[in-house]
């Protein structure tokens, strides 16, 4: 068996590097490409491009692509909110590969922040179960189908309450996730869910006093 060293890419034209980055974008059907994406599907290594053009942002700019989803200064809350969105969209706990394909942030960002994808999920669960404010201490009830009218407009499921006790308060991520989890991440009125139809977007906007959300 003959062993050979990998060839250096010092003499690769700039155009070829950028074209390969664009190829990966087209392959993944995304308007941006993360370093993780490129290292998995690219012909070269991301380091080859960043050394040539100075930064990954510059690489994306030269390829006429949008800035990468990885950014400096992302808070833990923003990362948890993204897990919540993906979890609701799938209707189940997201796997590593699913998060990689759907998330606004790269899985690498979660790994670096929390020490691994599994640990990121554990921290998310801790965050969701944490005691926080009035929204979680107040008894709540999600409107039953018999108490609401529902419409599918612009692929968005919205519950229209017939009660006069609606609240316009913003619903935090913890309460939203717990309420949606009660109904297995689908509309209680019509059964629609993002997992079955990606165009469906669930909203938890109509909450009245009456039933308490059980705390773990």
Protein model, in words:
The protein has 216 residues and is mostly helical. Among the domains are: 14-63, no CATH class; 76-135. It is 44% helix and 8% strand. The chain has helices at 14-28, 35-41, 46-53, 56-62, 76-90, 96-102, 107-114, 117-129, 134-137, 173-182, and strands at residues 141-142, 148-153, 156-161, 201-202, 207-208. The chain has a three-stranded mixed β-sheet with strand order 2-3-4, with no helix packed on it.
Name the descriptors.
single chain, 216 residues, mainly alpha, three-stranded mixed β-sheet, two-stranded antiparallel ribbon, 10 helices, 44% helix, disordered C terminus
Fraction of residues in helix: 40-55%
Strand content: 5-15%
Shape: elongated
Largest sheet: 3 strands, mixed
Adjacency order of strands in the biggest sheet: 2-3-4
Report low-confidence residues grouped into runs of 5 or more.
Answer: 133-171, 204-216
Number of helices: 10
Cα-atom Rg, whole angstroms?
Answer: 22 Å
**Total DSSP E strands:** 5
Q: SS-based structural class?
A: mainly alpha
SSE order, one letter for each helix or strand: HHHHHHHHHEEEHEE
Please report the distance between the alpha carbons of the first and last residues. 59 Å
Mean pLDDT: 68
């Amino acid at each position: 068996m003959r062993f050979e060293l990998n060839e250096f890419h010092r003499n690769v034209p700039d155009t070829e590097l950028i074209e390969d980055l664009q190829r990966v974008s087209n392959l993944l059907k995304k308007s941006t490409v993360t370093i993780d994406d490129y290292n998995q599907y690219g012909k070269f290594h991301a380091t080859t491009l960043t050394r040539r053009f100075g930064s990954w942002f510059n690489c994306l700019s030269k390829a006429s692509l949008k800035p990468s989803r990885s950014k400096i200064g992302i808070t833990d809350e923003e990362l948890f909110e993204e897990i919540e969105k993906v979890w609701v969209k799938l209707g189940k706990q997201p796997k590593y590969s699913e998060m990689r394909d759907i998330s606004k942030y790269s899985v690498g960002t979660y790994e670096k922040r929390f020490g691994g994808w599994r640990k990121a999920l554990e921290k998310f669960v801790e965050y969701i179960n944490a005691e926080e404010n009035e929204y979680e201490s107040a008894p709540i009830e999600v409107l039953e189908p018999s108490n609401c009218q529902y419409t599918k407009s612009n692929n968005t499921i919205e519950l229209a309450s017939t009660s006069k006790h609606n609240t316009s308060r913003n619903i935090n991520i913890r309460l939203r996730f717990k309420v949606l989890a009660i109904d297995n991440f689908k509309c209680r009125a019509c059964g629609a869910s993002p997992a079955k139809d990606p165009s469906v977007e669930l909203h938890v906007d109509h909450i009245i006093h009456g039933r308490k959300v059980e705390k773990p």
